[in-house]
Amino acid sequence: MRAFLGFMFFSTFEGIAAFSISMYIFRINLIRYGWQVLTVIGLINLQNYFIREEFLLSSVAPVINILLTAFFLNLVVRIPIIWSTILSVVGFVGIAVIQSGIIFFSQGYFSLDEAQVHLWKQYSVQCITGVIGFSVGWVLYKFGYGFSFDFDKLRLKWEHMAVLSLIAIFIVTIGVMMYFREVFLNLLVFVFAMLAILIYSFKKEDAEE
């Protein structure tokens, strides 16, 4: 239980960093979607926790995280799927750069080997990543820096139906992988996450009409 709570809590800092970078840099107010972002981060962390010991699934976890984030940005924030994917990649590349910098400038103190031996060092890197990612993103947004695009120019025809189809294919593909790896609980969490995003999207769409 202690390991689970530690994983969930400190991984949230990484998630906040990823969303801060991906949204603030592109002039999107993260705070406006605060509770939705935290919910998605929690669901991503949960599925990451359950597959962390499964090599096959853990190796594709970054792809799953990027796609989940892209679907969230598309269905909830209403960004076209192409831009949503770009923003997701930027966010996760951003935290990779931040963590690489932390490890490099620590001169071995926060090395990968040290993090494996001392769990608190891993947690420290995650906390620092969250603080740096959010701070940099917020400062850029606050002072008007970043990239502003007309996202709708890249919105595809029938995009909503295409995204729903992609989600269905994504769920089936990941579901089959999890079934054969016998990670049933993670499958339930994953399906719940996608359904929650879809339900929220439909409710928001109805409210806007």
TrEMBL record:
Q: Which UniProt keywords apply?
A: Membrane, Transmembrane, Transmembrane helix
The transmembrane segments are 6-26, 33-50, 56-77, 89-110, 122-141, 161-178, 184-202
Q: Does the keyword Transmembrane apply?
A: yes
Instruction: List the protein's name.
Output: Uncharacterized protein
Q: Which organism is it from?
A: Cohnella nanjingensis
